[in-house]
Amino acid sequence: FTPIYTLFSLYINFSPIDLGFIKGAKEFKNIFTLRNIEDAHNISNESVGKNVVIIGSSFIGMETASCLISKAQSVVVVGMETVPFERVLGQEIGSAMQRVIENLLLILLFVERKKKKLTHF
């Protein structure tokens, strides 16, 4: 499974970063950050039938992913922990949440910081 992504959303903590540090990022019309309700509507409208990648596996990223599953062709969540919500809720609750999320047909990718290895669940 190697989808070509047609929409990319970036969520880091509660304040999405400005993408100005990525050369050429501002010219792309399919990269979004979520800062307000208008951003949420734009992401929702633009995701219909597209392959979506969300960076961030905590509350904002996972909530957005769950909202987009019924609209997008596919949703991939990329996180820095080994399971969603691990940093704030712990491994056990994060694992339980991962099982629920997997039942919603999301693809979850996590980067283990120590191993610097991409893990696909």
Could you write a compact summary of the structure shown?
The chain is of the alpha/beta class and 121 residues long.
Rg (C-alpha, Å): 14 Å
Strand order of the largest sheet: 2-1-3-4-5-6
Number of alpha- plus pi-helical segments: 4
Describe the sheet with the most strands: 6 strands, mixed
Overall helicity = 25-40%
| Spatial separation of the terminal alpha carbons | 12 Å
Beta percentage is 15-25%
Q: How does the helix and strand content classify structurally?
A: alpha/beta
State the main characteristics.
121 residues, alpha/beta, disordered C terminus
What does this structure look like?
By secondary structure, this protein is of the alpha/beta class. 31% of the residues lie in helices and 23% in strands. Strands 2-1-3-4-5-6 form a 6-stranded mixed sheet, with helices on one face. Strand 3, helix 2 and strand 4 form a beta-alpha-beta unit. The longest helix has 13 residues, at 91-103. The model is unreliable at 117-121 (pLDDT under 50).
Structural topology:
Elements: E1 7-10, E2 31-33, H1 37-46, E3 51-55, H2 59-68, E4 74-79, H3 86-89, H4 91-103, E5 107-112, E6 117-120
Parallel strand pairs: 1-2, 1-3, 3-4, 4-5
Antiparallel strand pairs: 5-6
